[in-house]
Amino acid sequence: MKPIESTLPRVMKFEGDNRKMYNLSLHAQFHFLQYGLVKAADQAKLKIPAAVMTTWEAANKSETQLDQESTASEHTAKLLALDNERDNILSNIFYVVRGYRYSSEASKKEAALRLSAKLRPYTTLRNLPYEMESARIRGLEDDVSTMAADIAAVGLTSTFTELHTANEAYETLRMTRRTGSADTKLPTAQQVRALADEAYDIACQYIQAAYLYATADEDKTLIEQLVDRMNKVTTDLKTSHRQILAQKKAAKDPKEPKTPKEPKQPKEPKTPEKPKEPKQPEKPGGGSGEQPKKPDEKPKDPKKPDDGNPDITLPEE
């Protein structure tokens, strides 16, 4: 039997990927690179509808913006640092003023007493919510604005300047974050990821179809090269994804093995009780020492004489 020769046409196959498992950054990068490769190819030969490419690009841009918004946590950390700076400066002001109230120099003592009276309503300022603290700091600055000489007397001029700078920086960053999130109305990450994936899958189908219907060898070569490059991107990002997972796993501190419990000391065996002396068997007759009664003798045969002689009958002659 002759072997069957394959006459099946060659088709383009795309490397399988696990992009649905990628984090937002890696997923956005996957589509950015794949879109760039497809966009750079001859669109007339691929015949991918312009609407597909437009949707793919828009979804990828939205995904990138969402990834950038995830840096809001960095803003939060900066806000907390600035708030902590404000609190430390306020503490310094209160401590210095309190200390100078007991100064041996009359001018400094009097200046501190006047400042202390003015600052008394603000002693709990650091415990207020962030927004209220910002407003109260501005109120404090207004109240002491006419006391520049007293502030200089206790050496707090630069400290009050630092407080003003820190409070303004806090409010500027908070406003930037607030207006930025309000102005940017993006779809959810779940929506844009799904849209980008769908556009990519459609583009791949058009590329496969273009290869099947290509008649010129150079067109087939162009598409083969495109698919090879796209598969290389897929392979590289799968490797990156595995590395990310490995790093996360390594970052977790291995659980310390539990210290084995010390074996319990075996209980000391109980001292066996002395065996009880066996009871003395009771003597017959109730144990009173009396001799047991003899069993009744067999009743005498009334026919036999009680003479002690044997009962012999002689025959008559």
UniProtKB/TrEMBL annotation:
InterPro entries: DUF6261. It comes from the Bacteria. Pfam families: DUF6261. Residues 250-282, 291-307 have a biased composition (Basic and acidic residues). Residues 238-317 are annotated as: Disordered. This is Uncharacterized protein.
